[in-house]
Design a protein that fits this description.
The complex is a heterotrimer of chains A (about 270), B (about 350) and C (about 325). Chain A is built from 10 helices and 12 strands. Chain A has about 270 residues and is of the alpha/beta class. Chain A has a 6-stranded mixed beta sheet, with helices on both faces. In chain A, strands 2-1-4-5 form a 4-stranded antiparallel beta sheet, with helices on one face. In chain A, strands 11-12 form a two-stranded antiparallel ribbon. In chain A, helix 4 (about 115-130) packs antiparallel against helix 5 (about 145-155) and helix 5 (about 145-155) packs parallel to helix 6. The termini of chain A are far apart. Chain B has one domain: Orthogonal Bundle (ABC transporter involved in vitamin B12 uptake, BtuC), CATH 1.10.3470. Helices cover about 75% and strands about 0% of the residues of chain B. Chain B has helices at about 1-10, 25-50, 55-65, 70-105, 115-130, 135-160, 170-190, 195-205, 215-230, 235-240, 245-250, 255-275, 280-295, 300-325, 330-350. In chain B, helix 4 (about 70-105) packs across helix 13, helix 9 (about 215-230) packs antiparallel against helix 12 and helix 13 crosses helix 14 (about 300-325). The mean pLDDT of chain C is about 85. Chain C has one domain (about 30-330): ABC transporter involved in vitamin B12 uptake, BtuC (Orthogonal Bundle). Helices cover about 75% and strands about 0% of the residues of chain C. The chains are: A alpha/beta (about 270), B mainly alpha (about 350), C mainly alpha (about 325). Chains in contact: A-C, B-C. At the B-C interface, helix 6, helix 7 and helix 15 of B face helix 6 and helix 13 of C. Chain C: It holds the Pfam family FecCD. Chain C: One of its GO terms (cellular component) is plasma membrane. Chain C: GO terms for molecular function: transmembrane transporter activity. Chain C: Keywords: Cell membrane, Membrane, Transmembrane, Transmembrane helix, Transport.
Chain lengths: ~270, ~350, ~325
């Protein structure tokens, strides 16, 4: 087992009284690009939220760097672990540069609101996400893809070694999805630990170095996608018959759903 | 005293069809409606018989069969009967208006008072009476319509401001804000003119007292028009409940249905407010209770709301007359005291879409 | 624009700075006009001498005893309402989320009326208002709490409380005897007339305590505007921040109501008007305070002079501000 700065043990997760998962244990390998995947309502976002201390587990603990995460000062955690939530609210009339700058909050104090380090981090985050030329635009006026890049820039400006992303590609069209995932891969290559919840199994296989597959609140499989993704697993988790071929571009597993009926040209 | 009366209401009111999934059985629903109508008649009789002045039941009967011009008979014939009829009209209009608004806006918290429409109508009436000195109900009711229509348009635009579009909470907040502004302007106008202020102080908090039979006669045509139009909209509103696009796909003239519903709501709220002042919560709570009993079909929700609301409004009015004898508490206050906690419970329990 | 001094640094937007200075100037201008003009005109130089006890006895009486305390009370109360409005609009993420609509002002009114009916002095009425506001807020907060207080639930529960308390208020007014009803009615419109230093000083003390608290929570509150999760991810303890902010906002509006009666719509309009002026993203507490002070003293000045010698209650003027403000919000939606 590789080292894991972030891990959860014996987690029971619930919203109010509705239990989503019981006795879940998970470790996020350092410097991995971990993707959590599973059918709708399997608890994947819930698990991510628990790891990011957004949701207090009913039982069990999340550890960050060997300490129980809730025992660490909240700002201290925010300097080590960032989260891009599924939905955030854009304040009225805010510019891109101002929004990205808000990512520096955990590094600031009342009397140290804007250090040179802040300025450098924001510039670097905007460069990495390619939003520098949008700096003075109003966030409301941007396209969905641009806006998601701006949120990502804000999370990057936080300069955390671990970054959690909750469905970062939802509501984006396919080219923007790839754009965001490529950016995540770049960030991972630059040495960050990335954890993302994704919907698309093929995208997950292509980008993840470590895949966590969930169904009904339990982890069914985890590991290198090339090793664990099999037709049996897809059938068990998603209830889908499929064939798995190597992705012609990346060589990672590519799921091709079985056709229920032959295409007419084949029989003709 | 109050709990006793309230219990009578609930026992008589919307209890009958409470067995099983009844909305599939029109016969049961129709019977229920008849029973509700019977409850309404009973409540109307209670409203005539009970009041700040104790009148023996036999005397009440005599007042109709053999009026002798005695004080008791005058109170019954000239105060309580018009008041009861007014309560019937106002209750039916506000109950239906609330049901229509909840259906049209797909907002469980819509209410003519809460959304500022009654306050807009009240401002119109205040202008007519206080500034222009128009005292004929059939004339100033048009000011009420103007105020109600303007308020509906404004509250809708206010709520859909910004990018996030309209949500129940935004709509409610916009309505409350608009209502408070309208009320503040109305009170400012009234403060300039102490005579009108005295006459309208009770009306402004919502009251069935102090209106003559003549007022009722002058306003009744508008109420009836609003009720008929509103009830006729049940079928298209049923379809629109699936969403504007689905409604359009199923052949509903979306724009026309919305406009007609707006007209009906304006008629109903304007006439009700001109008669009894801006009342809150009648249009909110009754349709809720009705939907819980009869299901989502507007063909039943609308008539049930129109029948059940006056039962409760008259009940509250009777309670208001009895708890503070020899004075009385305006029905608007009684409704707010009963309605506000129910509203809070609904707001806490319902998963209302966030801001 | 960044100001750095050793390890310390502050960020300042030039536009906001300019707007702040302009508002300060406007406030001074209104204050001077209110002290100088009226039935008895005090020339501007005489104001200074009178304040330092060097003027004529008449000027001294009018300036130090009558007009200056009224203006100062107006400035402080306006600032308190402005800040309170900014806090609640930020928490509810809605430009209409004002303490006027979510029960707090109505609760203060209830407390005030009860004190009037109980035959209290001016100070008892002020105490009753503050108590009414705080108790209402505590109840609304408790009822809206479900593992945290979401802005929208606070709004809805508050609206219910508002309706209930408005009804209670009108009930109390109709049951009170004529004299009490008249006293309470006058107090309910909100007024600055006859306010002396004993009104201004408690507000000043409250502001001295609450302004630092507000400035301290302002930064985390800006983050909470982006959603609870986003704020938590930045290391903000959302619920404690929110509780402190609500407490500060309630106390501000309670203290202000205690001093001037329930003057509505200042808390509603000030934050957004300030925002338009500073072009800042979201509402800012400092600018809202300045705007509130200018609005209220300006409205009070207009109320005294518009129909002179008839004195309007300032509440009538602020109602007009409220209406104008809604119209402004509507116009904004057009594009």
């Amino acid at each position: 087992m590789p080292d894991a700065r972030l891990s959860g043990t014996g987690l029971t997760l619930a919203y109010d009284q509705r239990v989503v998962a019981t006795d879940l244990s998970v470790a996020i390998p350092d410097e991995s690009f971990t993707v959590i995947i599973g059918p709708n309502a399997c608890g994947k976002s819930t698990l991510l939220r628990a790891l990011a201390r957004m949701l207090k587990p009913k039982t069990g603990v999340v550890h960050l760097d060997g300490s129980v995460i809730t025992s660490l000062p909240s700002k201290e955690v925010a300097r080590r672990l960032g989260l891009l939530p599924q939905s955030s609210i854009v304040p009225d009339g805010i510019t891109v540069a101002d929004l990205v700058a808000r990512g520096r909050y955990p590094h600031q104090r009342l009397m140290r609101q804007w250090s040179r380090a802040d300025e450098a981090a924001v510039a670097e985050a905007m460069r990495a996400t390619d939003v520098a030329e949008l700096a003075d635009r109003i966030v409301d006026e941007l396209s969905g893809g641009q806006r998601q890049r701006v949120w990502l820039a804000m999370a990057l400006a936080q300069e955390t070694p671990i970054l959690l992303l909750d469905e970062p590609t939802t509501f984006l069209d396919i080219s923007h999805q790839i754009e965001v995932l490529d950016l995540c891969a770049d960030l991972h290559e630059a040495g960050r630990t990335m954890v993302a919840v994704l919907h698309d199994l093929n995208q997950a296989c292509r980008y993840a170095t470590h895949l966590i597959v969930m169904r009904a609140g339990t982890i069914v499989a985890e590991g290198d996608p090339a090793e664990i993704v099999t037709p049996e697993l897809v059938r068990e988790v998603f209830d889908l018959r499929c064939e798995i071929i190597p992705d012609p571009q990346s060589g990672t597993p590519l799921i091709v759903p079985e056709a229920r009926r032959r295409v007419s040209t084949a029989s003709a | 005293m109050r709990p006793a009366v309230t219990m009578v209401e609930t026992a008589e009111g919307p209890e009958e069809p409470a067995k099983g999934p009844v909305w599939a059985r029109p016969a049961v629903l129709a019977t229920g409606l008849v029973v509700a109508l019977a409850a309404l008649v009973l409540m109307a009789m209670a409203s005539v018989a009970l009041g700040a002045r104790s009148v023996p039941f036999a005397t009440v009967i005599d007042a109709f069969l053999a009026p002798d011009g005695s004080n008791d008979h005058t109170v019954i014939r000239e105060l309580r009967v018009p008041r009861t009829l007014l309560g019937l009209g106002v209750g039916a209009t506000l109950g239906l208006a609330g049901a229509l608004m909840q259906s049209l806006t797909r907002n469980p918290l819509a209410d003519p008072g809460l959304l500022g429409i009654n306050e807009g109508a009240a401002l119109g009436v205040t202008l007519a009476l206080g500034v222009f000195g128009l005292s004929d109900p059939a004339v100033y009711v048009w000011f009420a319509f103007g105020g109600a229509a303007l308020a509906s348009v404004m509250v809708y635009s206010l709520a859909s401001a910004g990018r996030s579009g309209s949500s129940p909470v935004r709509l409610t907040l916009a309505g409350v804000a608009l209502g408070m502004v309208a009320t503040a302007i109305a009170s400012a106008i009234l403060r300039m003119d102490s005579q009108t202020f005295d006459r309208m102080r009770f009306w402004l908090t919502g009251s069935l007292a102090g209106q003559t039979a003549d007022t009722l006669v002058r306003l009744a045509p508008f109420m009836v028009a609003g009720l008929v139009l509103g009830l006729l909209l049940a079928r298209p509103l049923n379809t629109l409940a699936l969403g504007d696009d689905a409604g359009k796909a199923l052949g509903v003239a979306v724009g026309r249905t919305r406009a007609l519903t707006g007209v009906a709501v304006t008629l109903l709220c304007g006439a009700a407010t001109a008669a009894a002042g801006p009342l809150w919560f009648v249009g909110l709570i009754v349709p809720h209770a009705v939907r819980a009993l009869v299901g989502p079909d507007q063909r039943w929700v609308l008539p049930y709301s129109a029948v059940a609301a006056p039962v409760l409004l008259l009940g509250a009015d009777v309670v208001g007359r009895l708890i503070a004898r020899p004075g009385e508490v305006q029905v608007g206050i009684v409704w707010a005291v009963i309605g506000a906690p129910i509203f809070i419970v609904l707001a806490r329990r319902k998963r209302v879409a966030a801001l | 624009m960044n100001v750095r001094l050793g390890p310390y640094s502050v960020r300042l937007a030039p536009r906001a700075l300019l707007a702040g200075v302009a508002l300060l100037l406007a406030g001074c201008l209104v204050a001077v006009a209110a002290i100088s003009t009226g039935e008895f005109t005090v020339p501007v130089p005489d104001i200074i001498t009178a304040l330092f006890g060097q003027g004529t006895p008449v000027a001294e009486l009018i300036v130090s005893k009558l007009r200056a305390p009224r203006v100062v009370t107006g400035l402080l109360v306006g600032a308190a309402f402005g800040m309170s409005g900014a806090i609640f609009q930020s928490l509810t993420r809605n430009p209409l989320g004002s303490p006027d609509f979510i029960g707090f002002t109505a609760g203060a009114s209830t407390g005030g009326i009860i004190a009037v009916v109980a035959g209290g002095s001016a100070m008892t009425i002020a105490g009753g208002a503050l108590a009414g506001c705080v108790i209402t807020a505590a109840l609304v907060y408790a009822l809206a709490f479900r593992g945290g207080v979401q802005g929208y639930r606070l709004v809805l529960v508050g609206i219910g409380a508002n309706a209930l308390l408005l009804a209670v208020n009108s009930y109390l007014l109709t049951r009170a005897n004529i004299n009490d009803a008249a006293t309470a009615g006058a107090w309910l419109t909100g007024s600055l007339s006859g306010r002396g230093w004993d009104h201004a000083i408690p507000v000043a003390i409250a502001l001295a305590v609450l302004v630092p608290v507000c400035l301290y929570v302002a930064r985390p509150m800006r983050m909470i505007e982006m959603g609870d999760d986003a704020a938590k991810a930045m290391g903000i303890r959302v619920e404690p921040v929110r509780a402190v902010a609500i407490a500060a906002g309630v106390l501000l509006s309670g203290v202000a109501t205690a001093a001037a009666g329930p003057v509505i719509f200042v808390a509603l309009a000030a934050p957004q008007l300030a925002r338009r002026l500073t072009r800042s993203p979201g509402v800012t507490i400092g600018a809202s305070a300045l705007m509130g002070a200018v609005l209220l003293t300006g409205a009070d000045l207009a109320a005294q002079r518009l129909l002179a010698p008839t004195q309007l209650p300032v509440g009538v003027l602020t109602a007009a501000i409220g209406g104008t403000y809604l119209a402004l919000l509507l116009r904004k939606d057009r594009h």
